[in-house]
Specification:
Layout (H helix, E strand, L loop, with lengths): L1 E2 L2 H15 L3 E5 L15 H5 L4 E3 L4 H13 L3 E5 L10 H7 L3 H4 L9 E6 L14 H5 L5 E3 L4 H13 L4 E6 L25 E2 L12 E4 L4 E5 L2 H13 L3 E5 L2 E3 L3 H11 L2 E8 L4 H13 L8 E5 L9 H4 L3 H13 L1
Parallel strand pairs: 2-3, 2-4, 4-5, 5-7, 6-7, 10-11, 10-13, 13-14
Antiparallel strand pairs: 1-8, 6-12, 9-11
Helix pairs in contact: 1-7, 3-4, 8-12, 9-10
Cofactor: thiamine diphosphate
Protein name: 3-methyl-2-oxobutanoate dehydrogenase (2-methylpropanoyl-transferring)
Keywords: Oxidoreductase
Length: 337
């Protein structure tokens, strides 16, 4: 089986999808000849031509508006927002148009678009290249929201997203593009070529949207995470020696609530980890659901480990970034509760 980085896995997913379906089109800023700022679309224009993989103006609202029109007429656009931080001009198109077409038309029209966007920090990108806006999408009825944590999942989930009849927000943790970053910024990056989940089939396969994966079985505490924080949580569990069960959500909307509930009822404790800000972050929704469905099983208060309620700071990147030390302290806290 081939070994791929997450960038290569994402590219392979688009390549496979374009080869199987002539209606799949790729566009965004610099995705054509240049191959994307992270090279995720490199070679696709040369292979499929300028009508199926092409550059768009620097106009996020225009990119999404065009994609929605294409989708209404039967195409399947997979568009790139160069960084998740740039999606705000397109938020109106996403939430008011794409998310509502099926409802507004009583099912006569769907909107099979995928919006890819690199998300999160850890690359010294500062406040305008490091944001994690996933909660802004999970609040919107009609959208699906995916955050993969490894190359194998990224490819399978992206193909599933492209084949889905409804709009999918596909957030790619940029700190994971080249390796499974565990929060230890002082260490060399481990490449995906040395990780089991770097093994990616070259052909077509899908992973069901809405199904979480248990990355580490345990009985003492449940850790719910997604994206880069899955690897941070795994590192924290190993370093503290606590028998933590680590759940990789993969899909935030729809959410695999059953896996979370079964785990927390078994462990009696829960820590939720994400990189986005604390207030109104998606972890608040997870904590609320755990409280609602697992109240009589809880043996300690639910703890959230998140970014700060500030713009993403360039100078204090690694204080803001929820690393294994912060997650480890939370694990110890709930075990003492």
């Amino acid at each position: 089986m081939a070994r791929m980085t997450m960038i290569e896995a994402v590219r392979s997913a688009m390549d496979v999808s374009m080869g199987r379906d002539d209606n799949v089109v790729i566009f965004g800023e610099d995705v054509g000849y240049f191959g994307g700022v992270f090279r995720a679309t490199q070679g696709l224009q040369a292979k499929y031509g300028k009508t199926r993989c092409f550059d768009a103006p620097i106009n996020e609202s225009g990119i999404l508006g065009t994609a929605i029109g294409m989708a209404a007429y039967g195409l399947k656009p997979c568009v790139e927002i160069q960084f998740a931080d740039y999606m705000y001009p397109a938020y109106d198109q996403i939430t008011q148009e794409a998310a509502r077409i099926r409802y507004r038309s009583n099912g006569d029209f769907t909107c099979p678009i995928v919006v890819r966007m690199p998300t999160g920090g850890g690359i010294f990108g500062g406040q305008t290249h490091s944001q994690s806006p996933e909660a802004l999408f999970t609040h919107v009825c009609g959208l699906k929201v995916i955050v993969p944590s490894n190359p194998y999942d990224a490819k399978g989930l992206l193909i599933a997203a492209i084949e889905d009849p409804d709009p999918v927000m596909f957030l790619e943790p940029k700190r994971l593009y080249n390796g499974p970053f565990d929060g230890h910024h002082e260490r060399p990056v481990t490449p995906w070529s040395k990780h089991d989940l770097g093994e990616v089939p070259e052909g077509h396969y899908t992973i069901p949207i809405g199904k979480a994966e248990i990355r580490r079985a345990g009985s003492a505490v449940t850790v719910v995470a997604y994206g880069t924080m899955v690897h941070v949580a795994l590192a924290a569990a190993e370093e503290t020696g606590i028998d933590a069960e680590v759940i990789d959500l993969r899909s935030l909307l729809p959410l695999d609530l059953d896996t979370i509930v079964q785990s927390v009822k078994k462990t009696g404790r829960c820590v939720v980890v994400h990189e986005a800000t604390l207030t109104s972050g998606f972890g608040g929704e997870i904590a609320s659901l755990v409280q609602e469905y697992c109240f009589y099983s809880l043996e300690a208060p639910i703890v959230r480990v998140t970014g700060w309620d500030t713009p993403y700071p360039h100078a204090q990147e690694w204080d803001y970034f929820p690393g294994p030390a912060r997650v480890g302290r939370a694990l110890k806290e709930v075990m003492e509760g």
